[in-house]
Amino acid sequence: MEISLKKSGLNQASFIHEMQIKAFMPLLEKYQDYETSPANETVDRIISRMNQPFTDYYLIRYKEVYVGAIRIVRKDNFVYRVSPIFILPDYQGRGIAQQVFALIEEKHQDARMWELNTILQEESNCYLYEKLGYKKTGKIQEINDKISIVYYEKHFQRRR
After folding, report:
1. pTM higher than 0.85
2. What is the largest CA-CA distance in the chain?
3. Given phi > 0 = left and psi -120 to 50 = alpha, else beta, which region is 134?
4. Do 153 and 114 meet the contact criterion of CB atoms below 8 Å apart?
5. Domains of the chain listed by start with CATH number
6. Which residue, among 24, 155, 40, 34, has the nearest Cα to 88 in the 3D structure?
7. How many CA atoms lie within 13 A of 8 on its CB side?
8. How far is residue 35's CA from residue 41's CA, in Å, rounded to a whole number?
9. What are phi and psi of 153, to 5 degrees?
10. Residues 10-63: pLDDT tens digits?
11. What counts of helices (H) and strands (E) characterise the chain?
12. Is residue 20 helix, strand or coil?
């Protein structure tokens, strides 16, 4: 599969913001989570994150088209967090996210643990992360009567 990642800069913040809205809007409409949905974030919020020294954004390219993005947050003790990852709706269900996770894990071979969270009610997301080796932590955050956020971790033996 022709998947690649390109580290993004501030000049791509608006483009990432546009894709993020397109990717998350169906979930915002479904769950009406106006407080925490990435579809409701401002471009300034993305710029603020891009300016964090512990954050990297990567554009996801499929063939010759940018189809999404992933944000990687470096934490202490070789812990990394994915927050968020998104693929545009027209490109979902093609195995792109699986390839992106393989590329990210290859890029960060020092990782002892990866963290992420997703919508508990989105069974396909949960299935994907569990298929990739992520385990539920037991933490679930109720957002409203329609949506809960479930937390995942993936542990690695210390690599050299």
Report:
1. yes
2. 45
3. beta
4. yes
5. 3-155 (3.40.630.30)
6. 24
7. 27
8. 9
9. -140, 150
10. 999 999 999 999 999 999 999 999 999 999 999 999 999 999 999 999 999 999
11. 4, 7
12. helix
How far, in Å, CA of 107 to CA of 84, rounded? 17
Tokens 């483009």 belong to residue: 15
CA angle 63, 67, 69 (to 5 degrees): 120
């996770």: which residue's tokens?
101
The contacts of residue 124 (CB under 8 Å, 6+ apart) are none
What pLDDT digit, counting tens, does each position of 74-132 carry?
A: 999 999 999 999 999 999 999 999 999 999 999 999 999 999 999 999 999 999 999 99
Q: Provide the pairing of β-strand 148-155 with 113-119.
A: antiparallel
Q: Which two three-digit tokens encode residue 159?
A: 């690599």
In the numeric block, which tokens belong to residue 123? 């069974």
Q: CA dihedral in degrees (95, 98, 103, 104; nearest 10)?
A: 140
List for the chain the helix, strand, coil content (%; round to 5): 40, 35, 30
DSSP string, 54-111: TEEEEEEEETTEEEEEEEEEE-GGGEEEEEEEEE-GGGTTSSHHHHHHHHHHHHTTT-
